[in-house]
Write a structure and sequence with these properties.
Mean pLDDT: 96
CATH architecture: 3-Layer(aba) Sandwich
Bound molecules: NADP nicotinamide-adenine-dinucleotide phosphate
Radius of gyration: 18 Å
CATH topology: Rossmann fold
Number of domains: 1
Helix content: 25-40%
Length: 273
Protein backbone atom coordinates (compact mmCIF):
# COMPACT_ATOMS: atom_id res chain seq x y z
CA UNK A 1 0.00 0.00 0.00
CA UNK A 2 1.45 3.34 -0.94
CA UNK A 3 0.46 6.94 -1.41
CA UNK A 4 0.24 8.33 -4.94
CA UNK A 5 0.86 11.87 -6.18
CA UNK A 6 -0.20 13.24 -9.55
CA UNK A 7 2.06 16.12 -10.58
CA UNK A 8 0.71 17.92 -13.63
CA UNK A 9 3.50 19.31 -15.77
CA UNK A 10 5.90 17.10 -13.81
CA UNK A 11 8.09 16.25 -16.78
CA UNK A 12 10.37 19.27 -16.42
CA UNK A 13 10.88 22.59 -14.66
CA UNK A 14 9.15 23.25 -11.37
CA UNK A 15 6.94 20.15 -11.70
CA UNK A 16 9.98 17.90 -12.04
CA UNK A 17 11.57 19.60 -9.01
CA UNK A 18 8.42 18.83 -7.05
CA UNK A 19 8.32 15.24 -8.31
CA UNK A 20 11.94 14.68 -7.27
CA UNK A 21 11.26 15.81 -3.71
CA UNK A 22 8.11 13.68 -3.48
CA UNK A 23 9.96 10.64 -4.88
CA UNK A 24 12.62 11.12 -2.20
CA UNK A 25 9.77 10.98 0.35
CA UNK A 26 8.54 7.72 -1.21
CA UNK A 27 5.42 8.93 -2.96
CA UNK A 28 4.56 6.83 -6.02
CA UNK A 29 4.16 9.26 -8.87
CA UNK A 30 2.03 9.93 -11.89
CA UNK A 31 3.73 12.54 -14.04
CA UNK A 32 1.78 14.53 -16.57
CA UNK A 33 2.86 16.48 -19.62
CA UNK A 34 1.77 17.02 -23.20
CA UNK A 35 4.70 15.34 -24.96
CA UNK A 36 4.76 11.67 -25.94
CA UNK A 37 6.07 9.27 -23.31
CA UNK A 38 9.26 8.51 -25.31
CA UNK A 39 10.22 12.16 -25.01
CA UNK A 40 10.07 12.05 -21.20
CA UNK A 41 11.90 8.74 -20.70
CA UNK A 42 14.83 10.52 -19.03
CA UNK A 43 12.93 12.33 -16.25
CA UNK A 44 10.82 9.23 -15.59
CA UNK A 45 13.98 7.10 -15.25
CA UNK A 46 15.54 9.69 -12.92
CA UNK A 47 12.48 9.56 -10.65
CA UNK A 48 12.43 5.74 -10.63
CA UNK A 49 15.97 5.80 -9.19
CA UNK A 50 14.32 6.76 -5.89
CA UNK A 51 12.78 3.26 -5.79
CA UNK A 52 9.18 4.40 -6.31
CA UNK A 53 6.63 3.50 -8.99
CA UNK A 54 6.38 6.17 -11.67
CA UNK A 55 3.72 6.36 -14.40
CA UNK A 56 3.05 8.86 -17.15
CA UNK A 57 -0.33 10.45 -17.86
CA UNK A 58 -0.09 12.31 -21.15
CA UNK A 59 -2.75 14.95 -21.69
CA UNK A 60 -3.53 18.63 -22.11
CA UNK A 61 -4.95 19.97 -18.84
CA UNK A 62 -6.70 22.67 -20.88
CA UNK A 63 -8.92 20.30 -22.88
CA UNK A 64 -11.76 18.05 -21.68
CA UNK A 65 -10.31 15.18 -23.70
CA UNK A 66 -6.87 15.72 -22.17
CA UNK A 67 -8.25 15.80 -18.63
CA UNK A 68 -10.20 12.60 -19.31
CA UNK A 69 -6.96 10.92 -20.42
CA UNK A 70 -5.07 12.15 -17.34
CA UNK A 71 -7.89 11.00 -15.06
CA UNK A 72 -8.05 7.56 -16.69
CA UNK A 73 -4.27 7.01 -16.66
CA UNK A 74 -4.01 8.09 -13.02
CA UNK A 75 -6.76 5.73 -11.92
CA UNK A 76 -5.28 2.90 -13.98
CA UNK A 77 -2.00 3.50 -12.11
CA UNK A 78 -3.88 3.40 -8.79
CA UNK A 79 -5.70 0.19 -9.73
CA UNK A 80 -9.18 1.75 -9.65
CA UNK A 81 -11.92 1.07 -12.17
CA UNK A 82 -13.47 3.74 -14.36
CA UNK A 83 -17.14 4.22 -15.20
CA UNK A 84 -17.92 3.31 -18.82
CA UNK A 85 -17.92 6.96 -19.95
CA UNK A 86 -14.64 7.59 -18.13
CA UNK A 87 -16.07 10.48 -16.13
CA UNK A 88 -15.92 8.86 -12.70
CA UNK A 89 -14.08 6.08 -10.95
CA UNK A 90 -14.67 3.46 -8.32
CA UNK A 91 -12.54 5.67 -6.06
CA UNK A 92 -9.15 4.82 -4.66
CA UNK A 93 -8.91 1.15 -3.76
CA UNK A 94 -7.25 -0.27 -0.67
CA UNK A 95 -3.86 -0.54 -2.41
CA UNK A 96 -3.59 3.27 -2.32
CA UNK A 97 -3.22 4.85 1.13
CA UNK A 98 -3.33 8.49 0.03
CA UNK A 99 -3.59 10.80 -2.94
CA UNK A 100 -1.95 14.16 -3.58
CA UNK A 101 -2.93 16.34 -6.52
CA UNK A 102 -0.29 18.90 -7.46
CA UNK A 103 -1.70 21.40 -9.95
CA UNK A 104 1.53 22.63 -11.47
CA UNK A 105 1.11 22.53 -15.27
CA UNK A 106 0.82 26.00 -16.71
CA UNK A 107 1.75 28.08 -19.69
CA UNK A 108 2.94 31.62 -20.31
CA UNK A 109 1.44 33.64 -23.17
CA UNK A 110 3.22 32.75 -26.43
CA UNK A 111 3.75 36.47 -27.00
CA UNK A 112 4.09 39.05 -24.25
CA UNK A 113 1.70 41.70 -25.53
CA UNK A 114 0.63 44.98 -23.96
CA UNK A 115 -2.75 44.85 -22.25
CA UNK A 116 -4.23 46.97 -25.06
CA UNK A 117 -3.05 44.39 -27.62
CA UNK A 118 -3.92 41.11 -25.82
CA UNK A 119 -5.68 38.81 -28.29
CA UNK A 120 -8.73 36.69 -27.46
CA UNK A 121 -6.76 33.69 -28.71
CA UNK A 122 -3.96 34.24 -26.18
CA UNK A 123 -6.44 34.98 -23.41
CA UNK A 124 -8.34 31.74 -24.08
CA UNK A 125 -5.13 29.68 -24.36
CA UNK A 126 -3.70 30.91 -21.06
CA UNK A 127 -6.93 31.02 -19.02
CA UNK A 128 -8.11 27.66 -20.35
CA UNK A 129 -4.86 25.94 -19.41
CA UNK A 130 -3.95 27.73 -16.21
CA UNK A 131 -7.39 28.17 -14.66
CA UNK A 132 -10.40 26.51 -16.33
CA UNK A 133 -8.58 23.22 -16.89
CA UNK A 134 -7.14 23.16 -13.39
CA UNK A 135 -10.58 23.79 -11.87
CA UNK A 136 -12.22 20.84 -13.60
CA UNK A 137 -9.29 18.48 -13.04
CA UNK A 138 -9.37 19.39 -9.35
CA UNK A 139 -13.14 18.88 -9.21
CA UNK A 140 -12.82 15.36 -10.68
CA UNK A 141 -10.15 14.23 -8.23
CA UNK A 142 -11.73 16.07 -5.27
CA UNK A 143 -14.87 13.93 -5.67
CA UNK A 144 -12.74 10.78 -5.45
CA UNK A 145 -10.80 12.10 -2.45
CA UNK A 146 -14.01 12.90 -0.58
CA UNK A 147 -15.28 9.36 -1.24
CA UNK A 148 -11.97 7.84 -0.17
CA UNK A 149 -11.92 9.89 3.04
CA UNK A 150 -15.48 8.81 3.84
CA UNK A 151 -14.57 5.16 3.33
CA UNK A 152 -11.38 5.49 5.39
CA UNK A 153 -10.69 8.63 7.47
CA UNK A 154 -7.00 7.65 7.58
CA UNK A 155 -6.73 8.07 3.80
CA UNK A 156 -4.27 10.96 3.25
CA UNK A 157 -5.56 13.48 0.72
CA UNK A 158 -4.12 16.85 -0.27
CA UNK A 159 -4.48 19.39 -3.06
CA UNK A 160 -1.65 21.83 -3.78
CA UNK A 161 -1.81 24.39 -6.58
CA UNK A 162 1.22 26.22 -7.94
CA UNK A 163 0.18 29.77 -8.72
CA UNK A 164 2.64 32.68 -9.10
CA UNK A 165 3.46 36.07 -7.66
CA UNK A 166 1.49 37.17 -10.74
CA UNK A 167 -1.63 36.41 -8.68
CA UNK A 168 -0.99 39.81 -7.04
CA UNK A 169 1.90 41.45 -8.94
CA UNK A 170 0.78 43.26 -12.07
CA UNK A 171 2.58 42.70 -15.41
CA UNK A 172 0.82 44.73 -18.09
CA UNK A 173 2.51 42.74 -20.87
CA UNK A 174 0.94 39.41 -19.80
CA UNK A 175 -2.36 40.34 -18.23
CA UNK A 176 -4.03 37.05 -19.16
CA UNK A 177 -1.40 35.16 -17.12
CA UNK A 178 -1.96 37.43 -14.08
CA UNK A 179 -5.75 37.02 -14.35
CA UNK A 180 -5.45 33.23 -14.56
CA UNK A 181 -3.13 33.03 -11.54
CA UNK A 182 -5.31 35.38 -9.47
CA UNK A 183 -8.27 33.14 -10.34
CA UNK A 184 -6.31 30.03 -9.42
CA UNK A 185 -5.52 31.55 -6.05
CA UNK A 186 -9.26 31.99 -5.43
CA UNK A 187 -9.87 28.44 -6.67
CA UNK A 188 -7.48 27.15 -4.03
CA UNK A 189 -9.40 28.96 -1.29
CA UNK A 190 -12.73 27.74 -2.65
CA UNK A 191 -11.66 24.10 -2.58
CA UNK A 192 -10.13 24.60 0.86
CA UNK A 193 -13.50 25.87 2.13
CA UNK A 194 -15.47 23.11 0.40
CA UNK A 195 -13.20 20.27 1.52
CA UNK A 196 -12.26 21.42 5.02
CA UNK A 197 -14.94 19.38 6.77
CA UNK A 198 -13.94 16.35 4.70
CA UNK A 199 -10.43 16.50 6.18
CA UNK A 200 -8.72 17.41 2.91
CA UNK A 201 -6.21 20.30 3.24
CA UNK A 202 -5.83 22.54 0.20
CA UNK A 203 -2.81 24.80 -0.20
CA UNK A 204 -1.42 27.31 -2.64
CA UNK A 205 2.31 27.57 -3.32
CA UNK A 206 3.18 30.90 -4.93
CA UNK A 207 6.61 31.03 -6.60
CA UNK A 208 8.51 34.12 -7.66
CA UNK A 209 11.08 34.12 -10.46
CA UNK A 210 12.23 30.53 -10.99
CA UNK A 211 14.86 29.31 -13.44
CA UNK A 212 13.09 27.00 -15.91
CA UNK A 213 12.33 26.78 -19.63
CA UNK A 214 9.44 29.20 -19.02
CA UNK A 215 11.82 31.99 -17.99
CA UNK A 216 14.67 31.02 -20.38
CA UNK A 217 13.70 33.74 -22.86
CA UNK A 218 13.85 36.48 -20.23
CA UNK A 219 17.05 35.41 -18.45
CA UNK A 220 18.92 38.63 -19.11
CA UNK A 221 16.02 40.79 -17.97
CA UNK A 222 15.68 38.91 -14.66
CA UNK A 223 19.46 38.67 -14.14
CA UNK A 224 19.50 42.47 -14.16
CA UNK A 225 16.40 42.84 -11.98
CA UNK A 226 17.72 40.37 -9.40
CA UNK A 227 21.12 42.09 -9.34
CA UNK A 228 19.21 45.35 -8.78
CA UNK A 229 17.38 44.04 -5.70
CA UNK A 230 14.16 42.51 -7.07
CA UNK A 231 14.29 39.81 -4.37
CA UNK A 232 15.39 40.19 -0.76
CA UNK A 233 17.40 37.01 -1.27
CA UNK A 234 19.60 38.04 -4.21
CA UNK A 235 19.31 34.97 -6.44
CA UNK A 236 17.02 33.13 -8.85
CA UNK A 237 14.63 30.59 -7.39
CA UNK A 238 15.01 26.97 -8.48
CA UNK A 239 12.52 24.12 -8.97
CA UNK A 240 14.07 22.55 -5.88
CA UNK A 241 12.91 25.52 -3.75
CA UNK A 242 9.30 24.91 -4.80
CA UNK A 243 9.69 21.13 -4.43
CA UNK A 244 10.79 21.51 -0.81
CA UNK A 245 7.69 23.60 0.02
CA UNK A 246 5.35 21.05 -1.59
CA UNK A 247 7.10 18.17 0.18
CA UNK A 248 6.69 19.89 3.56
CA UNK A 249 2.97 20.54 2.98
CA UNK A 250 2.27 17.01 1.78
CA UNK A 251 4.19 15.51 4.70
CA UNK A 252 1.37 16.79 6.89
CA UNK A 253 3.54 19.36 8.67
CA UNK A 254 0.87 22.09 8.28
CA UNK A 255 -2.28 20.29 9.42
CA UNK A 256 -4.17 23.40 10.63
CA UNK A 257 -3.31 25.72 7.75
CA UNK A 258 -5.71 24.86 4.95
CA UNK A 259 -6.42 27.62 2.43
CA UNK A 260 -3.06 29.27 3.06
CA UNK A 261 -0.47 30.55 0.64
CA UNK A 262 3.18 29.54 0.93
CA UNK A 263 5.42 32.10 -0.75
CA UNK A 264 8.55 30.82 -2.53
CA UNK A 265 9.78 34.11 -3.96
CA UNK A 266 12.93 35.10 -2.05
CA UNK A 267 11.00 37.97 -0.51
CA UNK A 268 10.05 39.60 -3.84
CA UNK A 269 6.64 40.80 -2.66
CA UNK A 270 7.81 42.22 0.68
CA UNK A 271 7.14 45.98 0.45
CA UNK A 272 10.35 47.98 0.87
CA UNK A 273 11.21 51.65 1.08
N1 LIG B 1 9.21 29.65 -13.97
C1 LIG B 1 8.73 30.62 -13.19
O1 LIG B 1 9.39 31.65 -12.95
C2 LIG B 1 7.38 30.48 -12.54
C3 LIG B 1 7.06 31.39 -11.53
C4 LIG B 1 5.83 31.28 -10.88
C5 LIG B 1 4.96 30.29 -11.24
N2 LIG B 1 5.29 29.41 -12.25
C6 LIG B 1 4.30 28.38 -12.56
O2 LIG B 1 4.85 27.11 -12.27
C7 LIG B 1 4.31 26.12 -13.15
C8 LIG B 1 5.45 25.39 -13.85
O3 LIG B 1 6.21 26.35 -14.56
P1 LIG B 1 7.63 26.00 -15.21
O4 LIG B 1 8.42 27.25 -15.19
O5 LIG B 1 8.19 24.77 -14.61
O6 LIG B 1 7.17 25.73 -16.72
P2 LIG B 1 7.91 24.93 -17.90
O7 LIG B 1 9.37 24.84 -17.61
O8 LIG B 1 7.47 25.60 -19.15
O9 LIG B 1 7.27 23.46 -17.81
C9 LIG B 1 5.93 23.31 -18.07
C10 LIG B 1 5.46 21.93 -17.70
O10 LIG B 1 4.03 21.89 -17.87
C11 LIG B 1 3.70 20.96 -18.86
N3 LIG B 1 2.58 21.49 -19.64
C12 LIG B 1 2.55 22.61 -20.39
N4 LIG B 1 1.32 22.80 -20.91
C13 LIG B 1 0.58 21.77 -20.47
C14 LIG B 1 -0.77 21.40 -20.65
N5 LIG B 1 -1.60 22.12 -21.41
N6 LIG B 1 -1.24 20.27 -20.05
C15 LIG B 1 -0.41 19.51 -19.28
N7 LIG B 1 0.89 19.82 -19.08
C16 LIG B 1 1.36 20.94 -19.66
C17 LIG B 1 4.95 20.73 -19.70
O11 LIG B 1 4.88 19.46 -20.31
P3 LIG B 1 5.84 19.03 -21.55
O12 LIG B 1 7.18 18.74 -20.95
O13 LIG B 1 5.17 17.83 -22.12
O14 LIG B 1 5.85 20.20 -22.50
C18 LIG B 1 6.02 20.84 -18.61
O15 LIG B 1 6.08 19.66 -17.87
C19 LIG B 1 3.39 26.89 -14.09
O16 LIG B 1 2.07 26.81 -13.63
C20 LIG B 1 3.89 28.31 -14.02
O17 LIG B 1 2.88 29.24 -14.33
C21 LIG B 1 6.47 29.47 -12.90
Amino acid sequence: MNKVALVTGGSRGIGFGIAEKLAAEKWDLVINGVREEVAVAEPLAALRKHGVRVGYARGDVGSAEGRKAIYAATHAFCGSELARDGSSSSGFKSQVSGFLLVNNAGVAPKVRADLLETSEESYDYVVNTNLRGVFFLTQAFARDMVAAKKADPKFAAYIISITSISATVVSINRGEYCIAKAGLSMMSQLFAARLGADGIPVYEVRPGVIKTDMTAGVTEKYDKLIAGGLNIQPRWGYPDDVGKAVAALSRGDFPFSTGQVVMVDGGLVVPRL
